[in-house]
Amino acid sequence: MLGAALSHDLFTVAERLSDRRIFQNSFQSAELDLAQEPSLRLTILNLFNRAKYEHNL
Which is nearest to 11 in space by CA: 49, 3, 1? Predict the structure, then answer.
């Protein structure tokens, strides 16, 4: 269940990056200033924190 939710959330993040024409071929080539994207930054942080909590890491 977490896998599906996390996959959906990560897809949403990638889609948002794509919409802004920041996402280019891979995350390695993406240039993103998270300070300019506070809602995206919070989304990413929340995903990682949720995964850590749910897996007791």
Answer: 3
Residues 17/30, Cβ–Cβ less than 8 Å: yes
Full DSSP string of the chain: -HHHHHHHHHHHHHHHHHHTT--BSBGGG----GGG-HHHHHHHHHHHHHHHHHTT-
Find tokens 């990413």 and name the residue: 44
- In this prediction, residue 39 has a pLDDT band, given cuts at 50, 70 and 90, of confident
Q: Model pTM greater than 0.70?
A: no
